[in-house]
Amino acid sequence: MTVALVVACVAPWSGRAAAADLEEIRRRGELIWAADQEGGGPHVFPDPADPARLTGFEVELAGLIAKRLGVRPRFQQGPWDRLPLLLGRSADCVMNGMELTAVRQRDYACSRPYFAYALQIVSHREGPLASPEQLLRAGPRGAWRVGVLTGSAAEIEMRSRDPEAVAVSGFDGTLDSLEQVRAGVLDAAVLDDCIVTFYAERFPELRMVGRSFAGGFYTVLTARDTPQLSAAIDAALGTLVADGTLEALYDRWHLAGRQQVLLVRDATEVPPAPVRGLAELLAGTLPLLLRSAAMTVLLAVASFPLAIAIGLVVAVGRQYGPGWLDRLAGCYVELLRGTPLLLQLYAIFFLLPRVGLPLPPVAAAILGLALNYSAYESEIYRAGLKAVPVGQFEAALSLGMSRWQALCHVILPQAVRIVMPPVTSDFIALFKDTSVCSAVTVMELTKRYSVLALGTGAIVELAAVTALLYLAMSWPLALLVRRFERRWESSGTGPGR
Amino acid sequence: MIVVESLCADRCGTRVLADVSLAVAAGEVAVLVGPSGGGKSTLLRCLSGLEAFVSGTVAIAEHRLTPGPQPADRLERIRRDVGMVFQQFHLFPHLTAIGNVALAPRVVRGLPAEEARDRARSLLERVGLARFADAWPATLSGGQQQRVAIARALAMEPRVLLFDEPTSALDPTMAGEVLEVVAELARGGQTMVIVTHDHAFARRAATQVIEIVAGRVARRGSPGELL
């Protein structure tokens, strides 16, 4: 997320002037097209027979378009909901199930449609959801839990519904929501119909609920300042439709080529969305951003005390416990420090349900953050405990205190003062790491930013607002701790003694 | 009050105490003198159970210490009756003077906080530091810190008080303040064992002087005989 923010902030200055138009692309001999292979089939995905190779109908289409432009295609990986940011920098065009929307019409050059999609609801065969109409009202256990792909038209459609009826979780990968439906964590997933058809065999426990609905078209995005490239892609698509190549391609992928070609040929124009001023933008988005900032605070404030408590137990166990405990706790620390937080969150959220321990997203996020940071906290505390002179321990013992009493009343209070600065900076780090929790569908600040940026097209402006919100939350904390430190120093009890 | 018989102790694989025997009666002040590295401090630490010994026996304040590691509860019981004052004071830097003195009675004896503070205040008065009750250790002079440390040890009302070179880190004026307090305690009948290089200290307070050289008792007698 941090990277995305930086990219977004730098975008207006480093940006579009560098976009390569058709002549330069011909000169370099490559059309660089961006997509996210995590989005999965049938669009772009690793070939099961040779995972180093990409396959999918869009991979083939990119090849056909590039060929008509007289160049070779080159694939550029990117996160799906931020692929348009790559335009003019590391990619010439984006082709990855990008729905043709009014906002995209306004902000990018959109090609003529190349594919017609519709939304499809999927549920578990044994689940209570049997008809699409049920999703308009709350189910037997309250709101229906529905998974969607982050930033997709399905997400916008589902979030526009009554939150009493539908509780939406956004996932970064297509298969994640299907997995969660299979595990019983979600009641339904809403995906583009071609995805559902493609993965039907892999998920025999799932069934389609009703016919597909709320259709639209996929478009190839290019930057607004490369008109020749945009025109060339349009022309290429026109030829592919007219000469039957596209129909044959879709038939090979079991995508009803005849119907597709007729649908995209006769598609009506989507008018661009009106340009909105900053005030209007903020009025519409700031309340939502603030609400998600509260979730970010909740995640941090709930997980950090847990991390400190676990870290303390681990540190004391290692420092004063028997040798086997030290080794065991050492393994715990290295396991958690040596693996990415994201993977740990995945493990808690996606694997625990498989062994019968489904956790709601917020609980999973808090647990994941607490466990991950407890490893770092324990190392800091261990250093703090070691920094208290051994004479302090002996003095406490020779007053008749037990080891435990000496630890609680003499050693720990001093260690806490010593470790305060690193613990604070850890808290600020954790605070920002809460953004990773969007991976387990928690709607925190960064996730809200992604959704809003996509809905409004104001990627850069909202990134700046979001960054300011993070700063506004972490800075006061740093100031507060600095005041504590000053007070301890002035009383002569600080670590500087 | 203290009987040590044939005590042998090792440190890092070398014998530092060999066959040490001594006896200190109630109300006596025994001063241990001798060259550095002779084993005086080790002997003192064996008496309070801070260090284990290899063979021999120690009886102190009606407790018995045996060779090897001691069970934790036995050590806690012994240390409630045997106080210790260190060369480097080891005051708790996160507590004020009165907080240092009141901590152990509150935590170990379960005294109510108010009562512990009242008693701590009168102990600070006894060592001449009533004015400094709310001072942080870091703001006190070495002599003042050592007197707070003595008050802290006295707060547990120990039957025996052990001093490990209490004035070695102090200049003569401050050492004098501490000596004054120790002499006062001696007049009050407090049983004490004091390791020191300060012969004035020994002459002023000791009833018995024991010289330890190379881990053995070299000489023992009254201060007049030895010093």
Structure description:
The complex is a heterodimer of chains A (497) and B (227). Chain A contains 18 helices and twelve strands. Chain A is an alpha/beta fold and 497 residues long. Chain A folds into three domains: 2-114 and 219-265, 3-Layer(aba) Sandwich (D-Maltodextrin-Binding Protein, domain 2), CATH 3.40.190.10; 116-217, D-Maltodextrin-Binding Protein, domain 2; 278-490, MetI-like fold. Chain B is of the alpha/beta class and 227 residues long. Chain B has one domain: Rossmann fold, CATH 3.40.50. Chain B is built from eight helices and ten strands. In chain B, the strands form two sheets. In chain B, strands 6-7-8-3-9-10 form a six-stranded mixed sheet, sandwiched between helices. In chain B, strands 2-1-4-5 form a four-stranded antiparallel sheet. In chain B, helix 4 packs across helix 5 (142-154) and helix 5 packs parallel to helix 6. The two termini of chain B are 25 Å apart. The mean pLDDT of chain B is 91. The interface between A and B is medium-sized, with 23 and 29 residues.
What labels would you give this structure?
heterodimer; A: 497 residues; alpha/beta; D-Maltodextrin-Binding Protein, domain 2; MetI-like fold; five-stranded mixed β-sheet; 12 strands; elongated; disordered N terminus; B: 227 residues; Rossmann fold; six-stranded mixed β-sheet; four-stranded antiparallel β-sheet; 8 helices; 37% helix
| Biggest pleated sheet of chain A | 5 strands, mixed
**Rg of chain B, Å, rounded:** 17 Å
Sheet/helix structural class of chain B: alpha/beta
Oligomer kind: heterodimer
Provide the spatial order of strands within the biggest beta sheet of chain A: 4-1-5-12-6
Task: Report the mean per-residue pLDDT of chain A as an integer.
Answer: 87
The CATH class of the largest domain in chain A turns out to be Mainly Alpha
Proper CATH architecture of chain B: 3-Layer(aba) Sandwich
* Global geometry of chain B: globular
Shape of chain A: elongated
